[in-house]
Batch of 4 targets.
Target 1
Amino acid sequence: MKKITLIILVFFMGLTVLIYIFGFAFHAQSANQNIINQTPTSFLTKKEIARHSTENDCYLIVNDKVYDVTSYINKHPGGKNNIIKYCGQESSKIFAAIHSNFAWNLLNQFYVADLKKNF
Amino acid sequence: MKVIKNNIYAWLIMAIIILIPVLLWFISRPVLPRFTDLDMTLTNIGQLLGLIGVAMFALSLILSSRLHVLENYFNGLNKVYERHNQMGQIAFIILLLHPLFLLPEYSGHSWYQAALFLSPTANWPVTFGLLALGLMIILLVLTLYLRPKYNLWKITHKFLGLAFFLALIHVYLIPSDTSRYLPLRIYMLTLFVLALLGFSYRTLLGYFLIKKYQYAISKISALSSNIVEISMFPLKKKINFIPGQFIFIKFLDKNLSKEIHPFSISSGSNDKNLSVTIKALGDYTTKVANLTLQSGVEIEGPFGTFSYQKAVNKNQIWIAGGIGITPFLSMARSLQANENYQVDLYYCIRNDNENICKNLPQSILSLVRLINFYSDKEGYINAEIIQEKSGTFNDKDIFICAPPLMIKVLKAQFIAKGVNKKNLHSEEFNF
C-alpha cells in the first residue's frame, strides 16, 4: 500500500511542478511577447453585442469588455440559465457580486473585444 | 463467530458511510447532463473523488479515537489502527486525484490557468483546499516514509486534525453540489462533526475525558541483560483486565520523557500488583530500567482482544516470539487448575541467555507445558515442528505473539495444514 501511495504522490508532485513551469515561466514569456507584438484591440457596440443573445451565441459585457461565453454555458457551476438571461447585455454588477477571483481569471479566456461607448 | 460477524458489520458500516454522499450527489441533480463531454465528465468524477476522499478522511479520524467499542468490531486495537492506516492512505490517494480531475475544466486547457488553479490565491475556498492537501502531503510523507522519532512523530501526526479542519472549510465554502443540495450538506456536516469529536476526544479533550489509572512503581526486576519487569501498585482504583490485554503507560518519573507507549500486561488478572515486562529496543525502553521506585505511573486501558478466554477450544497452542512472551505470562499466571485448559507454550528465542521463563513457579508449569525453542540450535520454528510436538491441530486454538513476519509465515503454514482462520489468533507488536 505504501508503494502505491508513493507512486501516486510522486506523479502528483511531478505533474504539479510541470504545470508550474509551463504555466508561470512560459506565461511570463508570452506576456512579454504580446507587449512587443502590440496586438490591436477591436471594439463592439452595444447594438452589435445585443445580436449575440442566445444560448448558442452568447456575449456578455463585463466592465466594458466583451466576452464570448457560448462554449462555457453548459459548464457553468451555477447552471446555464443564470448566464443565458444576461446574453447580449451588460452583466458587470451580477458578475462582480457572486464570482471569485478564479472566475474572473477564467473569464479572461473568453475575451473578444472592448465595448465601444457612446452608442 | 461473533468476531467475524462484528468485523463484517464494521466493513459494512464503513462502506455505507462512504457511499451515502455518493448516492446523495447522484440524486442532487440529473445525472446525464453531468457527463456530456470529457471535461465535464472529468470534473464530476473529480467532485465525487473529493466527497469520497473527505468521507474516508473523516472515518480515519474516528478510527484513531481509540474508543473501546471500535475494538469489538475490528477484533483488537492493533487491527483498528491497521484500518486507520489503510483508510488514511486511500483517502490521501483519492484527495491527490481530486484536483487533477478538476484541472481540464477549471484551467480552460491553459497551462497558466492550471498553474493558478493549483496555487494559493485570494480565492479562499480553493486555497483552503490546497492548504489542507499540502499539509496532508507533508504529514503523511513524515508518517509513511521519513518516520522521525516516535515522540516527535506523534506530535506532528496530530496536525492532521488541522488538515481535516481546513478541508472542512474548503468543502463548505466552495460552490458545489454540497453547497447547493441540503441533504448532502447536512450529511457531510454530521460526518465532520463526528470526526472532529473523535479527534478532539483523543487530543484536545483527552485530559478531561479519557479515563486513566494512577499507579506507582513498587519493584524493578532485571530478568535478563536487556529485559526488565516493572511492578506497580494502584494509588486509587485498580485496573481490571483480561489476561493477554495491553495498556498505554506514561511513566511520570522525571528521569524519563513523558511519552506514552503500549505494553502488554505480564501479571495475572488476580494479582495484587500490575506488571509489565519491557525489552530495551530503543531510546525510551533502554532508560526504563533506571526508573525510580515509588514514582508515579499513568495508565490508560486495557485494550486488546488477544486472550485465551476468547477462544472456543480449551486445547491451545501458544507461540511467543522473543518479547512476545509477555501476554502469555499474564495468561499463564491467570490460568486456574479447575478450568481444565491444556496448553503448550512455545517460547521462541535465540538462546538460553534470552530466556526469562527459567524461574517460572511450578504452579504455572503444572498448567502450561513450556517448550523452549532456541533458533541458534534448532533454526526457526515452523508448523511442522509444532505438529510433531503438540499433535493434531484439530479442536485447538492457536495464539501467536511475535514480530509481524514470524506471525505471517506461521499463519500461512497453519492454514496450509488445514487450521481454520477463526482458530488462529495473533498480536503483532508493531504499533
Target 2
Amino acid sequence: MRTYLDFEKPIAELETKLADMQKLAEQSNVDVSSATAALQGGIEKLRKEIFENLTRWQRVQLSRHPDRPYTLDYIQLMCDEFIELHGDRQVRDDPAMIGGFANIGGQSVLLIGQQKGRNTKQRQHRNFGMPNPEGYRKALRLMKLAEKFNRPIVTLIDTPGAFPGLEAEERGQGEAIARNLKEMFMLKVPVLCIIIGEGASGGALGIAIGDRVLMLENTWYSVISPESCSSILWRSWDYKEQAAEALKLTARDMKENKLIDGIIPEPLGGAHLDHGVMALGLKKVIMETIAELSKLTPEQRISERIDKFCAMGVVIE
Amino acid sequence: MSWFVRKEKGISTPTEMKREAPDGLWYQCPSCKKIMQTREHKLNAYTCEHCNYHEKIGSDAYFEVLFDQNIYIELDENLTSGNPLNFVDTKPYPDRVRATMLKTGLKDAVRTGFGKMNEVEIVIACMDFNFIGGSMGSVVGEKIARAIDHSIKHKVPFLMISRSGGARMMEAGFSLMQMAKTSAKLAMLSEAKIPYISLLTDPTTGGVTASYAMLGDFNISEPGALIGFAGPRVIRETIGKDLPKGFQSAEFVLEHGFLDFIVDRKDLKDKLTSLLNMLR
C-alpha cells in the first residue's frame, strides 16, 4: 500500500479509481483499455500540475516520505560492492551513521551517510537518523582512511539533526561536529556531499563540507527544522508552513542563494516512486562529479573548498 | 482644635527633584544577594568578592579587562547585517536588528579588536549576548573570519570569547554556513601554527559550540558557565527526564574532557599571558 501525502489526495483518488476499473475489467472481461489509458493520462497531468507548484512545506514532507530511499537503499542500488566499516575506535559503533568502501561503476570511493529506519524497530536501532558524537567520529576516522589510500569521499546526508541526548552531551556532540568541519576542509581527496532527504543544521553540516554540495530536488537543508523554528519564533508548533517559507530551505532556494552547488532532479512525484531511476540518476552525477574533481590537484581543491564556504554570507560594509 | 496648626504647606518635592545617592554606587550580587561597591566589583573583573559569581558581561567589559589600559584598535566595526532572505516572523528581520541596535548600542553580536595584553599582541573577538541572544549570523561569521585573517597576517594569537544561544534563525542557511566559514579560517590559523584560545562563557550552545568555540588549541571557561550543543530544555524534552544537577556546567564539561581549564575572570589576563609566553 502506497503512502500518500495530504496534498496528493486527488492523485490517490484517481489511482484508486484506476485500480478498481482494472479489477472490474479483469472480472468481467470487458475491454476498458481506452478508459484506463485516459485515466492514466489524467493522473500524470494532475501529478505534473501538483508537483510543479509544490510549496516549501510540501517539499519538506516529501523529504520525510516513509517510502523515500535511504542511504543503504542507494548503496544497494548504485554499488557493485560495499564493505561496511564500523566503530569510532573509542566508544562504540553508531548505527545512525554508516560508512565503508564502495565500488561505484568501477570507481572505488569511501561512502558515508546517515541512516534512517523503515519500521519502528529499525527506526529505534538507527535512532531516527540522529547520530551521536561517535557517528561523527567514525565518519572522520573513515575519511582519514580515504585520504590515506587516496580514494574520493561521497557523503549522503539525511538527518533530522544530531542527537540532543544526555550521553551525546557527555561525549561532546559539539566538539565532534566542530572537529569534522575543520578537518574536512583540509582533506586532500575529492569530497562530494549530497543531501538525499533532510539536512538539519549542524547534524547535517558535520559531514557536508565538500568540493561540491548537491541537493536532491525534494529535500531541505537549513539551520533548523520548520517545526522547531515555529516553536521558537512564533512560540507555537502551528506555524511550520510559514516557517518553511521564511527559512527558504529548498534545493532551489539554497542554489539561488549560492549556498549549494547544484540540484539533482527526482522522478516526477518524488524519489520514493522509483528508487531504481533515482539511484541511477544519482550514480551518474556521482561518477561525473568525481571525474571532474579528480582533474584538480589536492591544493586546488582545498583552496577552492575554503574560498567557496568563506564567500557565503551577506553583510553591509 | 489641635494645638499645632500647620501654617506652611507640607513637603512636596517632586520625585525628580529628590536628592538621593547617585545610581550605580552599589552592586548587589544576583547569586548571593550580598552588596559590594560597584567600583570594587569592576576591579574584581565583574565577579562577586563574596561568592565568586561571574556577572555576564559584554565585549566592552572584556576588552577593558584584557587589553592593556583598555587600548585597542577595533576591526570591521561598521559591518552590519543584510536581509538576504527577507525573513519575516512576528516582525521583519531588519526591524528586529534596528531595534536591537538602538537598545544595545551595538552593531551585531560580536566585536573584534587588536591590541596588547600584558605587552603581548593579540586579536580578541568577543560576543555580545544581548544582541539577539548572541546569535551567529553573517556578520558574526564574517567578523570572526576577518579577525582570524588579521591574526594570520600579523602572526599574533587569536582569542575567541563566545557567549551565544547558537545560530541566527533569521539568516537560516546563511547562518549555518558561518559554522563552516569560521572552521575553515581556523583550519588555516592552525596550519600557520598560531595559537588559538577559545573561552566559552555563560552560555555557549548550539552552532557556536559545534564550530569555533570547541576548536581551540586551548578550550577554557569560567566557573559555572553553561556549555552544550543542545540546550537543556531540548534535552529534557528528548529524554523525558530531569537533568542531573550541574549537567552542562563548565565543571561537567571539564570532567568529560572537553575543556583544558576553568579560570576565574580576575586571573584570566595573567594566566593567558603566561600560557602564550610559554608558546613563544
Target 3
Amino acid sequence: MTDTAVTEPGLRDLSEEEFVARYGAGRFTCGVLANRGRYVAEHICTDLLHRAFSPIITFSQDFVGAIVGPPEQDYPLAAVNKGNVIFLGSLSTGVRNTVWEYGIDRLEPGDLLICNDPFRVGNHVNDMCFIRPVFHAGEIVSFVVIRAHQLDIGGIVPGGFSLMKKNVYENGLVLGPQLIFHRDEPVKELMRTILDNTRFGETLLPDFHTIRSCCALGERLVQDSIERYGIEAYKGAIRYNTDASAASMRAAIASLPDGVYEGSDAVDSDGVDTEVEYRVQVKLSKRGERLEVDLSGSSPQSRTSLNATALDAQTAVALAVKLVLDPFSPFTSGIYRDIDVVVPTGSVIGAGPPAAVMFYFEIQSVLINAILRALEAPLGERAVAGAYGSTNLHTGEGLNPDGTPWFSAAELEAQYGAWGATDAGDGNNHSGLATLNMIMPSVEEIEPRVPAMILHREYLPDTAGPGTHRGGSALMKQSLFLSDGDHYLVPLHFRTPSGSGVHDGGDGRAGGSWFFEDESSDASTPVSEFRVPEPDDFDGAAVVSGVVDPESGRLDPGGEFAFFGRKPIWSERRGSVLRWITNGGGGWGDPLERDPEAVRRDVRDEYVSIAGARADYGVVVSGDPENDPEGLELDLEATERLRREMTAERG
Amino acid sequence: MSDQNPVQEAVSVEREPVAGACSDCGKEELMRYPVLSEGGWYQAVKCQSCLHSESREPDPVGPVEIASVVLV
C-alpha cells in the first residue's frame, strides 16, 4: 500500500549465520528466551494475584509485570504479562527515568526502587512502579518490574478518583525515585512516609512485601535463564524480541496508504463547568514505514485532575495503532521505533506540573477514539467503530449503620461497556476500554464488603450502532445503597455519542446516569421497602449526567445536557439507587446489508426491538420477543420490499 | 491550578525551521521539534515531506519541567 520504498531487510531475510552474528544465538534459542521472558512476567503476576490483599489488584487486576532490558541496550521493554495494557507504553521510559535519576551506580542486589510521579513514569500517583535490578557477574542485565495500582496514595479524596482535585498537591503523595527495599530489607523511613500519608495502610504494607518477593522471584527466574543459555544469548534475545515487534509494526505501518489523517474527540467537562471543552486533536502523517502522530491543537491542561501526561499519550497511540494495524505481535518498546509522537506540553494530553493527573485513562480513551476516526477512511473495511467512551467512575464512602466506615472505588460504576463493530463481527457488549483490560469484580465479592446490592445488569435494545455488523449494546446497571454515603461520580462522555459508526455503520446511542434519591429512609427501614426502579422507570430520578428530556429525565438526543459536576459530592441516604446506561458501540457497514436472520436473533435476544429492526435494518419481524422469543417470525418478502424502499429514499 | 482562568486556546508544538536539504528525499523542509519514541524523548530534526530524521538528540528529561530533577 505504501508508495515509499521499503529499505530495511526483514528479520526473516537473515541467514542463520547472519542471525547468530546479530543476536548471539540462533532463531530457536532466541524464540525460547523471548517466550521465557513472557513466562517470567506471567509467573510473577500470578504470584501477586494470589497473595495481594488489595481488591483492585486481586479482583480488578489493575497491574502488570514486565522485564526491562539492561542500560547498555537503553532499557528496552522486553516482555510483559497479559496484564493491564494501560501501563505498557511508559514502562521503558519510566524505568530509564527512574534509574537515571536515582543513580544506577547506587543500585545493589536486593534493592527495590519505586517511583509514582506521573511526569516521570506516566499513569497516576496510585500506580506505583516497582523496579528490581537483576545482577549477573556484578552487572545489571535486566530489571524486573511490577506496576500496580495502590488502593490509596493520600490526597483529598479516598482512593483518589475525583475531579475535585485541582493540583498536584491535592492529588496524592508524589514519590520520586527512591528505594522502598534495600538489600531485601524494608526502608522504614519511606514506609513510614507512605503509611502516615495514605489510607488503608493495613492493605498497602503487606502488598509491598508481596510485590518485593514477586520481583525477587522474577530475578531468580531471569538468572536461571542466563545460567541455562548464557548471558550473550539472553541479551541477544532481548534485542531480537524488540526488533521482531519493531519489524511487525513497520510492516503494519507500511500497509497504510501514505497521507495525512486527522480526527478528534472530546470529554464532556473537567468537572468545574460545561463552558470549557477538553478536546484531543490528532494528525497522523504517514510516509512509507514512518508514522508521526501530532497532538497539536489539543485543549490546554485542565483545572482539575482530568489530565494525562505525554507518556500516557504514547501508550494510547501504541494501543490504538496496534488495535487496527498490528494486533497480534507481542508488545515491546520496539513498536515505537518508527512512530514519533509529538505532544504539546501544557495540554490535557501532555500536562505538566502543577497540574493534577488522575483521569489520564479518560483522555487516553478520547485519543484512541480520535485515532479510530482519523483512520476510518484509509483503513476502509479494516476500520474499527468507536466504543462506550468512559469508565464513568464511582467512588463511595460513608458509615455503616453500626458506625464502621465503608468504602468502594471503581466497582459500582459502568466501567465496562460496549465496543464498536469491525469487519470480523459485532462489537462486544461488555469489555473494558482499549486501554483497560481489567476484570470487573463479581457481585459476590462486592456485596459482602460494600453496603450495596447490585440490582440490574442488563442490555438495552436499540442502543447499539446499527450496521452489517452492529455495535455492542448499552448496559443498564443499578446499585441500591444500604447505608448513607458520599458519592463521587465521573461520567465523562455522555454529551455526544462515543461509539462512532464506520464504513456506513451507525453511531451507538449516548447514555447517562441517574440517582433515585431516597429522602425518607432511616436505619430501621427494611430493605424490602426500598424502591427498585424498573429499567423503563425514570420517575423522580435526579439526572446525574446525559442529554435528556428535562421533564421526563429520559434520554433524548434533542434534549438538555445535565452536568454531573453541579454536585461535586452526591450525598445520598440509605435506599438510594444509582443507575447507569453506557454508550452503545458503533456499527460497521450498511445496516441494510445485515443478515435478516441475524436481526431476528437480535430481536429474540432483545438487543433490537421489533420497531428497531424495521427502522434501523429494514427487517420485518413479528411476534412477542418477551414471552415467546423462539416463536418470532421473519418475513423475508416484506423485508426485501422495505429495504428497496429505504434504499430508494436514501437516493 | 484551580484558580487560574482557563486558557481556551489549543496548545501546539512549535516547529523551528532548519536550513538544509533532507538527506533522504532532498526536500528543503527540515524542522526541529521534540518527539517521543523508542528510547524516550528526542530533539529531532525531521523532514516534513518524508519524515526522515536528519538528527535525533536524546533528551532524558523531555520538555516537562520537574523541580526536583535538579538534584540529579
Target 4
Amino acid sequence: MKARRIARIVAAEAAYRAKRRNLRLGVAQAGEVSAVRANVFQGMLFTLFSSITVFALAFAEDVETALLMFFGSVAMTAFFNIMYVTSFTAIFFSEELYKPLQLLPIEPRSLEKILVTAYMLYWGGLSVSALWIPAVIAAPLIAPRYTAYALLAGGAALAVYIASTQAGLILGSYSRLAKSNLLLSMASAAGWVLLMLAFAFLPQIPVYLRGAGIGLSPLYALIPFVGFIMAPLYPLPAAASLAATLAILYVLGVKARRVYLGEPGPRLPQRRTAGFRPRRPLGRVAGLVRKDYLLLLREPRRLAGVAYLYLFPFIFILGGALSDMWSVIAGVSMGVSSTLWIYLEGEAARHLYELPLTFLDVYLSKLADSLIPLALVATALLPLHASPLAVLLLALGHLSEASAMIALTLAEIPEEPSAWSEAVSTKARHVAWLIATMALFIAVPLAASMAGRWYGAAASAILAAASLAAGAYSSCRRGAL
Amino acid sequence: MIRYEGVTKSYGGAEILHGVSFDVRDGEVFALLGPNGSGKSTLLKMSIALVKPDAGRVLLGDLDPAADPVEARRLVGYLPEEPLLYESLRADEYVRFILDVYGLDVDWGRVGELARQLGLWEHGSKLVGELSHGNKRKLMLLTVMLRQPAYLVLDEVFSGLDPVSAVRVRAWMRSEADRGRPVLFSTHILPIAEALADRIAIIYGGRIVAEGTPQELKELYGARELEEVFLSVTGHAEEYEELLRMLGEQGDEG
C-alpha cells in the first residue's frame, strides 16, 4: 500500500514535469493520478487493434499470413511499450526524481516495486498488454486452427513486453548523458527516428515480403522473441529462439536492476577543457537561433520528432516523384513541428522576459529555426527527381504553417512570465488550430491547382505571404516580452 | 537615479505594496531590507517591468520601465533571486547567448578574467544544469558585469555565494557606484548591508518603515547594530530582547 502510494506520487510528479516541458507521452495526468484513467481509454484503443488482428486471423488462408499478423502484434507491443516506458524513465532520470526517493528509508526491493507500479499503473504501461491479451484469448475461439500459434504469440508478446520495459528503463537512464554528449544525443535521436519509421512501415513488411517472394523459412524461427512462435513448424530453431530470448531477458533484467535501485544512471568519461571558449558573436535573432539549436541537439526526443517530420518528403518520394499534392502536404506537415521551438524554451522561457526582447524577435527566431531544416530538405530533394515547382510548393506550405502556428502559439503566451512553461494553450485549442491551418494551407492550393499547376503555386504563395504578414503583425502588436 | 513613486501592487485582491516611495541616487549603493514576503523582489522586478505597478511608477532617470520594457532591460543589470537559466547550455554558451541578445562583442580575455575572479573559470564548459545554485548566480553576475549596465538591481545578491566571491562582488558593487551608477540590492545579511550600503530602506507590511544611512538609523532607534533596528521596525524588538536574555542565561549556566 505504501509503495503504491509513493508510486502514485512519483507518476504524478513525472507527469507534471513532463507537462512543463511539453514532453508528455504517458497518459498519467499531472495532479490527479488515477490508474483507471491512465489505462482504460488507451486499453480500449489497444483492444480494438488487437480485435482487428483476431478478425483478420479468421480470414487468414495460410499459416504464413497468420504468422505475419502475430509478428505485427508482437512488434506493436514492443513499439508502444518502449515509447511509453522510455518517456517515463527519461523524465524520472533527467528531472532527478530518484533523489527524493533515495532520501526516504525505502528498501531497494520496494524501490523496484515503486518504479514498476508507477509505470504500469499510473503511466499507462498496463494498457499496452491490451495489444495482445485479447488476441490470445479470442484467437482459439475465432480461429481454432491457429490456437497453438496464438498461445505461442502470447508468450512472445509477454517476453517482448518484459524485455521492452527493461530496455526502456535502461535507455531512459541514459537521458542525462545525452545532454552532455552530442554523439550519444544524435544516436539516441536516430534510434527514436528508426523506431518511428519502423512503426510507420510495419504494415508494409508483409506486402514487401510477399512481393519479394520471400516465404517461410526455418531461419525466421531463429529470431529471438518471435521465432519460437513457429515452434509447430520448426521445433529445433524455435527452441534456439526461445533460449536466446530467455538469455536476453536475463541480461536485460540484470542491467535494469541498477535502474530499479534508483542509481543515477551511467556516466561517460568526459574530456572537458576548463575555461570559457570564445564563441563567434551573432546578432540578437541569430543568437536566439543558435541557442535553440544547441538546446535541440541535447534533447534527442524532440530532435527525433523534428527529423521524423522532415523525412516526410523523402518518404513520399520513395513511391515515385514528389507530386504537387504530396509536396503541399509534406510542406505543411513539416511546418507543424514549428511550435516545438517554442516549447523547447521550457522553464527558462521566464529568463527571456528579463532580456531586452520583443515578441517579434521571438517570432522571427522561431521561424528561422524552422527554416533551417527546410532549406536542407529542399536542397536534398532537388537531385532526387523532385521538380523545382514541387520543392517550391513544399517550401511555401511549410512557411505558411510554421508562421501561423508560431504566431498563434505566441499570441497565447501570458502577460506575466510565471506560466510560459506550462501548456501555452489548451490541447483542444491547439489541435483545432492545427486542423484549421492544415486544412486551409492544403485545401486551397490543391483546389487552385485544379485550374492549372501554376494556380496552385500562386495560391500557396499568397497564403504564405498572408501568413507571414499576419504573424509579424500580431507579434509586433504585443511589443516587449 | 532609480525612483519609486507611490508604488502600489496587489495580487489576488491582497495589496502587498502600499504606495512605496524611495530614490536610489547616482553613485549610491542602496540596500532594500525586509522579511520574507515583504515585497522586496516585487519592487526590484518593477525596475525591468517584469511586474507592473497597479498605481504609482518607477523611473530609471526619465524612463518608465512599464512604458518601454525593452529599453529598461537594456539599461538595467538585473539579477533575479532565483536563476532560471537554460540548463542544457554550457556556461560559455550561455554567456555568448546573453552577449548576442545585447549585441555585445566583448574581449574573451575579459570574460576569462572575470570568470576567474568569481571562481567560475573551471566550470566554463559545464552544462548550466550541472552547476551549483551559487555558481548559477555567479554566471548571471558574470553576464551583468560584462554588460556594464547603467543601473544595477540585484535581488538577494549574496545568496549562495562563498565568502571570497561575496567579497569580490561587494568590491565590484562599490566600484560601480563610484563610477556614478545607482546600485540597488536586497539582502537578508544585515552586516553586509550595514558595511556596504550608503543608505538603507526597510520594507515591512508593504510599506517603507525606515530609511536612511546605517548610522542615522542606528541613532534614530538607539541601536548598536542594524539588526536591532530591523527587529525594532518590524515589531520584533521585545521578542529579540527575550531571546537575547535567554541566550545570556544559557551562557551563564554553561
